[in-house]
Amino acid sequence: MVKKDSSKLKKLKFKRMSGDKMNARSEAFLKTMLCRRSVRHFSKESVSINIIKDAIKIASSAPSGANKQPWHFTIVKDPLLKSKIRSAAEKEEKEFYQNRAPEYWLEDLKKFKTNWEKPFLEEAPFLIVVFKKTFTLSGEKKIKNYYVNRSVGIASGFLLSSLHNAGLATLTHTPSPMGFLEKLLNRPSNEKAILLIPVGFPSKDAEVPDLKKKLFKNVCNIV
Prior knowledge:
Layout: H1 19-34, H2 49-59, E1 71-76, H3 79-100, H4 103-109, H5 120-123, E2 126-133, E3 135-138, E4 141-144, H6 148-165, E5 169-170, H7 179-184, E6 191-200, H8 216-219
Antiparallel strand pairs: 1-2, 2-6, 3-4, 5-6
Helix pairs in contact: 2-6
């Protein structure tokens, strides 16, 4: 018996815009994104959680290998839990700065004026933890996911862009190792934390390094 193909396709809904409108939208988004900076000093001012939810919905719309959507996002707003996360992260960061980091790495970090102390993990009104799923659990069965790191990376880019576009500041924080997040947030064994993102408004006295981005000609060629 020939197995019937159960896959379904539907007609793409694609709305064409005029060339002028396309260029205007492209330029406007470019100007918006060029203003994005990683922020390490946050205001404790509240933020609508609906903005955070919408950003995660946008992130979840990202393409993924075989549409497996191998990600999970946890929004952390509880002050006590944020305090525990800060304590655990600072433990790992202190070990990194004092014992694990090679001199060239510490030298590269000097311009950012960072150290093992991470007060932004308590100051920001929300933390978003991004988890990757190397496999999906269906009962006791493990279902393989494909291109997991690439898929979750694309989704994280969607997330950061949407938060910035909504008028919020973010930071990509990656204490290593990050296993404490899986434990504190009680996530299943198939999920591994890869990114910790504080989200909120920058503090009034927030400062950022005076950095320059590479020019278009240095990051792209046309053939």
